[in-house]
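Late entry, evening session. Most of the bench is empty. Finally got around to the prediction I had been postponing all week. Sequence below, unchanged from the version circulated by S.P.
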Amino acid sequence: MLGLLLHGLLPEHHLRDASKDTVKVGAGMIATLSALVLGLLVGSAKSTFDTAEAEMTQGGAKIILLDRLLADYGPETKAAREQLRRTVATQIEDLWPEEKTGCRDWPPSSGRMGWRPCR
């Protein structure tokens, strides 16, 4: 509707084919640049996600390896293995609490590593 109203108000030289082509080229360039920026944004987010996923997988594998190595040393390492399990469980609860509060403290005031829910 606005375009129909403005059509009557524009001078004749703005309604020629050359002007229309210039506007089309400008709109195409803006659309192309927008698509490029969105593509780079999505690529960056995907790269960040993949890195975080790889770090979590690698960390989990290292914890499991440590637990198995401690188990190989015999019953003397039972206390260390239990402490490892408690620490890992605490870290998981800090990162992904069962009750979602939508609020996080940083740095953690509890003295533990990572995020913890606000109280």
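Two things to note before I forget:
The first helix runs from residue 2 to 9.
The chain has a mean pLDDT of 85.
Will write this up properly tomorrow.
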